[in-house]
Amino acid sequence: MASRLSQVSGHISNAHSRGLLAGEVAIITGAGQGIGRSIALLFAKEGAKIVASDIDEKRLAAVLEEIKAAGGDAIGVAGDVGADDFPKKIVDATIQKYGKINHIINNAGFTFDKMLHTTPDETFDIIIKIHVRAPFRLIRQAAPYFRLKPEARENRSIVNVSSTSGLHGNVGQANYAAAKAAVIGLTKTIAKEWGPFGVRANTVAFGLIHTRLTAAKEAGATIEIGGKKVALGVPGAKGPQPTPDADAYPFIPLRRGGNADEAAASVLFLASPLASYVSGHTLEVTGGAGI
């Protein structure tokens, strides 16, 4: 037992000295801004080669410039994660450039909030398509690079992004809550099917993280879907507070919302050797909300 512990400890120590993800390759969707951008920058800092994707080419290009300016290695694959050809396009680009895939971080997504009784089919369907179908299709496309013989195995993982809406439901988010609950079931299935190949699969369920999706709707952030602009955000939402505010966030024990860098750190933990025996888990990153 002592020998085994020393081997694990040594592996983590060596990985940390070179970067927790040194030499590994990570596909990160929705990497143009918010949490996805922070994940891409943090993973690159920890030595990973980044394959970043976003539907916004300009934002994606800016993130790639940041990574390269800091000495990182990255390529971009712009596009809609829900497009039929997207999984093949990004997997082929990854293998052509780097020859392998270690991690897939399914982060891309948005909200399209409506009360359940006023939600049309297309509003429900698009959220399911982006948050459940798209991650499933990307993971399936990458299967040959994860289901490997023992001698070819390295640290490999899938991290799917969920939400407390998927754990507890949320008013005005029947579509989003259903999708984010489905992501958890998908992840657990991957953990069981691919565990024998040494692949870990985990979910991170975010609470209030300050991004454009949780900012005040009055700020006017939008996303274009099928040629139509959809408003993002939460009506009357409060922004980041300079100090913990008991009045602003009474239901969060830490009395504040999280930021994108804190969210990214939790994803790094799940992908890194620090979580080498963690699989099938849903990590709640909520500041204590929901306990």
UniProtKB/TrEMBL annotation:
ATP-binding keyword on record: no
GO MF annotation: an example: quinone binding
A Pfam entry, by short name: adh_short
Family designation: Belongs to the short-chain dehydrogenases/reductases (SDR) family.
Source lineage: Eukaryota, Fungi, Dikarya, Basidiomycota, Agaricomycotina
Any GO BP: fatty acid biosynthetic process
Stated name of the protein: 3-oxoacyl-[acyl-carrier-protein] reductase FabG
Natural source organism: Hypsizygus marmoreus
UniProt entry tagged with the keyword Oxidoreductase: yes
Keywords, sorted A to Z: NADP, Oxidoreductase
